[in-house]
Design a protein that fits this description.
InterPro entries: Cas1_AcylTrans_dom (IPR012419), NXPE4_C (IPR057106). By secondary structure, the protein is an alpha/beta fold. The chain folds into four domains: 248 residues, Rossmann fold (3-Layer(aba) Sandwich), CATH 3.40.50.1110; 54 residues; 374 residues, no CATH class; 31 residues. It contains 29 helices and 13 strands. Strands 4-5-3-6-7-8 form a six-stranded mixed beta sheet, with helices on both faces. The longest helix has 31 residues. The relative contact order is 0.09.
Length: 760
C-alpha cells in the first residue's frame, strides 16, 4: 500500500469511465449540488491566481455555486464573484506569469492585515513560454521566481488550502501560429521545475502546497476536443472543478458517496463494546476448545487390559455443548464483522464509483439465466408455490436485484424507467410471498404462539441488529428488513386478534370464511387510510420507541415512502393464499405431477390471459415517462405481473414439477445476500463498488462476489444456529430470554443516547 491518503490519489491519479465520468484512484468522488457547495463554502474566501486556463477553472468552480453565471467581462483582468446568500467570495486574479507581481500579491496575504483566503488555487507557465518564445532563459527565470514564491505559499498553507495547478498538455496540431512555441516538451520541463521546488523546505511538515496534477491526466484524454488546442473543453474543466470541491468539502460535508479525502470515522462507544464482546467470544471459544481437546485426549478410547474391550469416551454435558455452539457462532460472526468493518468503514480497501454500461447489466443476466436453466431438477412436491419453487423465485429475483445494484443503473433510474419499474415488481414479489407464506402458515397451523413470532423476528432481524451496532447505522437504513418485519406483525395481528379464524374452524362453518374476508377488508381499509394520511402515519411511528427504529435523518418520511410504495401487495398475497387454499380444500384444482392446474380449456384461457397481462405490464412500464407518476400507480398494478407470473409458472403441470436448484440455493440465503451487499460487495453503503484487487475490474468482481456469497451463506447458518439457542420452545425459558433481550436493547438505547450526546 502507498498509504491511505486518498486526497493525494484524488489530486494525482485516476481514469475515465466512459467518456465523461472521472474515477479517482482508490476512492469515490461526490457530485456536489449547488446547495451542498454553498453549505460547504459558507463564509469562505477563495482566490484563483493565474492565466486563462486558471480563469476557465475559476468559472467552472463558481458555476457549482451558481449555475447562472456567464463567462463575461475583461478576460485579461481580475474578475470578482460573490454569493451574498452564503457569504461566499471568489476572486480571479489575472497573473499570467510567475513573476514579481504575483509574488508581491501572495506576500501581502502573509504579512499585511488583508484577509487571508481559505483556498488559494495558483498556476501559470504558458504565457512565459509564449512571450519568451520557449527560451531556456525563461525556464531558468521561472525556476528562480517559483523558488522565491514557494516559501510564501508554504507559509499560507499552514492555515489555508493552497493548490498549485500543473500545466495541462496542449494539442500541438491545433495551436495557432502565435502559440506554436508552446510544446508539450516545454510544458513538461516547467511542471518538473514546479514539482521539484514546491514543498522542498517542508517535506516533513504538514503545511504543504498541494500539487494539482490530475488535470494533466484529464487533459491527455480530452485535449483533442479543445477549440484551440490550448484550453480544455468544458466537460474537462467541470471535472477539475468538481475534484477541487471534493478535496476541500468532503471532510466537511462527509457525503456517503464521497470517500476521497474523508478521514476514517472514529470508533463509537457501542462499536468498542461490540469489539470487546466479539474478542471475548473468540477467546472463550478457544479456551473451551482447548479444554475439550485435552479431555478428549485423556478419555479417548483405550483397550481394557482385563476384558480387551474398548471404553467409550465420556460425553460432554448438553450445557457445555450449547455454550460451545454459542461461542463458536459468535466467534465466526466476530471475524465476519471485522471483515465488514474493514471493507466499508476503515480506509483499508479501495472504493470506486459505479458506472453503467449495457453489457455490465445484460451479460450477467443472460449468464445466470443459462446457469439456472442448466441446474433443473424435479420438485419433491407439485403444489402451487411449493417450497422449492418459492426458493427458486427468491433466488433469481435476488440475483437480478444484485446485478441491478452493482451495474450502476440505479443512478440513472430516470433514464431507464422500464428497468426500474420491473425491479420494483421484484421487490413487490418478495412482499407478496411474505403475505402468502405467513398467511398460509397461520391459516393452516393455527399457531399464534410467542415461539413462532420470536423465531421469525429473530431470523429476520438478527443480522441487521448486529450491523447497526458494528457499522453504526440506523435500523431504517436497511429498509427492507423493517418493511418485512412490520408486515409480518400486521399479518399476525390481523389473524390473531379475536375472533381467531383458522382453516380448522372455518371447515366446520362456512360463515367463518366471510368473517375472515371481513378482517381482510378492514386491513385493506386501514392500509388505504394510512397511505393517504401521511400525518397520521408519521405520528404513529414517531412515538418512542418506534421512532428509534424508523427514523432516518431525523424523520420518518423515508419509512413512509418505502411502506407506501408497495402498500397493497402483501394484502394481495394474503388474499391469493386464501383463495388458493379454499380451491385446494374443495378439490377444484389438480396438483398431480404433470397435470394442468385446471381443466384443459380453463387452463389454456387462464394461461393466455396471464401471458397477455404479463406483457401488458411490461409495455406499460416501457411507456413510463415520469418516475413519480409511475411510482404512484405501481402499488395498484404491480400485482398484475406477479399474479401472471404465478399462473404461468404453475398452471402447466410440467413447469410446476421442475425447479432450478441453482436459483433455489441462492433463494435460501436471499435475505442475507440483500443485506450483506451493502458493505462487502458494494461499498460506501451501496453508493460505490468495493475494490479488493485494483486494476483488474472483472477479476475483482469475481473475487469479491465469491467472498460475499460465502459470507452470506455462513451468516445464514449462524442465524439458524443461534435461533435454536436464543429462542427455545419452552415458554418459561423463552420468557427469561425475552427479558434478557429487552434488557439488552434498553442498554443499547442508553449507550446510544450517551453516544449521541457526546457527538453533539
Amino acid at each position: 500500500f502507498q498509504g491511505d491518503d486518498t486526497c493525494e490519489y484524488l489530486l494525482s491519479s485516476g481514469r475515465f469511465l466512459g467518456e465523461k465520468v472521472w474515477q479517482p484512484h482508490s476512492c469515490m468522488m461526490h457530485k456536489y449540488k449547488n446547495s451542498e457547495a454553498k453549505n460547504c463554502l459558507i463564509d469562505k474566501y477563495i482566490v484563483f491566481i493565474g492565466d486563462s486556463r486558471i480563469r476557465q477553472l475559476f468559472y467552472s468552480f463558481i458555476k457549482l455555486i451558481n449555475p447562472q453565471v456567464k463567462e463575461e467581462g475583461n478576460k485579461h483582468g481580475n474578475i470578482p464573484f460573490e454569493d451574498k446568500s452564503a457569504s461566499i467570495k471568489v476572486d480571479f486574479l489575472w497573473y499570467p506569469e510567475v513573476n514579481g507581481s504575483m509574488r508581491q500579491r501572495i506576500k501581502s496575504w502573509t504579512e499585511g492585515s488583508m484577509a487571508k483566503p481559505h483556498i488559494i488555487v495558483v498556476g501559470a507557465a504558458t504565457w512565459s513560454i509564449k512571450i519568451h518564445n520557449g527560451s531556456n532563459e525563461a525556464l531558468a527565470q521561472y525556476k528562480i521566481n517559483i523558488t522565491s514564491i514557494a516559501p510564501l505559499l508554504e507559509k499560507l498553507a499552514k492555515n489555508s488550502d493552497v493548490y498549485w495547478v500543473l500545466q495541462d498538455p496542449v494539442y500541438e496540431d491545433m495551436l495557432s501560429e502565435s502559440r506554436k512555441m508552446i510544446t508539450n516538451e516545454k510544458i513538461d520541463a516547467y511542471n518538473e521545475a514546479a514539482v521539484r521546488i514546491l514543498n522542498s523546505s517542508s517535506r516533513n511538515s504538514k503545511a504543504k502546497v498541494k500539487v494539482f496534477s490530475v488535470s494533466k491526466l484529464i487533459a491527455q484524454e480530452t485535449i483533442m476536443k479543445s477549440a484551440d488546442g490550448l484550453h480544455l473543453p468544458e466537460s474537462s474543466r467541470d471535472t477539475n472543478a468538481m475534484i477541487l470541491m471534493n478535496v476541500y468539502c468532503n471532510k466537511i460535508m462527509k457525503p456517503i458517496d464521497g470517500s476521497c479525502c474523508q478521514p476514517q470515522p472514529p470508533l463509537t462507544l457501542i462499536q468498542k463494546m461490540a469489539f470487546c464482546f466479539f474478542t471475548l467470544s473468540i477467546i472463550g471459544y478457544l479456551i473451551i476448545s482447548l479444554i475439550h481437546r485435552n479431555n478428549y485426549r485423556k478419555n479417548k478410547s483405550c483397550t481394557d487390559l482385563e476384558s480387551g474391550e474398548e471404553k467409550k469416551p465420556s460425553i460432554s454435558t448438553p450445557n457445555v455443548s450449547t455454550l460451545e455452539m454459542l461461542l463458536h457462532s459468535f466467534c465466526k460472526l466476530g471475524l465476519i464483522m471485522t471483515y465488514f468493518y474493514l471493507c466499508d468503514r476503515a480506509n483499508l480497501f479501495m472504493k470506486e464509483n459505479k458506472f453503467y454500461t449495457h453489457s455490465s447489466f445484460f451479460i450477467p443476466i443472460v449468464y445466470i439465466l443459462v446457469l439456472g436453466v442448466f441446474y433443473t431438477e424435479n420438485t419433491k412436491e407439485t403444489k402451487v408455490l411449493n417450497r422449492e419453487q418459492t426458493d427458486e423465485w427468491k433466488g433469481w429475483m435476488q440475483l437480478v436485484i444484485l446485478i441491478y445494484h452493482i451495474s450502476g443503473i440505479l443512478c440513472f433510474s430516470q433514464q431507464f424507467l422500464p428497468v426500474y419499474m420491473h425491479i420494483r415488481v421484484l421487490v413487490a414479489a418478495y412482499l407478496f410471498q411474505t403475505g402468502y407464506g405467513h398467511f398460509s402458515y397461520f391459516w393452516i397451523k393455527g399457531d399464534f404462539g410467542v415461539y413462532r413470532v420470536c423465531q421469525v423476528l429473530f431470523r429476520l432481524n438478527f443480522l441487521v441488529v448486529v450491523l447497526c451496532i458494528v457499522m453504526d447505522r440506523p435500523y431504517q437504513f436497511y429498509y427492507f428488513v423493517p418493511l418485512v418485519t412490520v408486515w409480518f406483525m400486521i399479518i399476525y395481528a390481523t389473524l390473531a386478534v379475536w375472533p381467531q379464524i383458522v382453516q380448522k374452524k372455518a371447515n366446520g362453518n362456512c360463515l367463518w370464511h366471510f368473517g375472515l374476508l371481513l378482517k381482510l377488508i378492514c386491513l385493506l381499509t386501514c392500509i388505504y387510510f394510512l397511505s393517504y394520511s401521511q400525518g397520521t402515519f408519521e405520528k404513529i411511528f414517531s412515538f418512542w420507541p418506534l421512532s428509534k427504529c424508523f427514523e432516518l435523518n431525523g424523520n420518518v418520511y423515508e419509512w413512509w415512502f418505502r411502506w407506501k410504495l408497495d402498500r397493497y401487495v402483501v394484502f394481495y398475497g394474503m388474499l391469493f393464499a386464501f383463495i388458493y387454499l379454499a380451491l385446494q380444500k374443495h378439490q377444484m384444482i389438480s396438483e398431480g405431477k404433470g397435470d394442468p392446474l385446471f381443466s384443459s380449456r380453463v387452463s389454456n384461457v387462464l394461461l393466455f390471459i396471464s401471458v397477455v397481462s404479463f406483457l401488458t405490464y411490461s409495455i406499460w412500464a416501457s411507456s413510463c415517462k415520469n418516475k413519480t407518476e409511475c411510482n404512484e400507480l405501481h402499488p395498484s398494478v404491480s400485482v398484475v405481473q406477479i399474479l401472471a407470473f404465478v399462473l404461468i409458472r404453475n398452471i402447466p403441470g410440467y413447469v410446476r414439477s421442475v425447479y432450478s436448484s441453482f436459483f433455489a440455493w441462492f433463494g435460501k440465503i436471499s435475505l442475507e445476500l440483500f443485506i450483506c451487499q451493502y458493505h462487502i460487495w458494494l461499498a460506501a453503503d451501496t453508493k460505490g463498488i468495493l475494490v479488493l484487487i485494483p486494476g483488474y475490474p472483472m477479476f475483482n468482481v469475481l473475487v469479491s462476489t465469491f467472498i460475499f456469497v460465502c459470507v452470506a451463506h455462513e451468516i445464514s447458518q449462524i442465524t439458524n444456529d443461534l435461533a435454536q439457542i436464543v429462542v427455545p420452545k419452552d415458554n418459561s425459558t423463552l420468557l427469561k430470554r425475552l427479558l434478557c433481550i429487552a434488557g439488552f436493547f434498553s442498554g443499547l438505547h442508553l449507550f446510544s443516547a450517551i453516544q449521541d450526546q457526546s457527538r453533539h
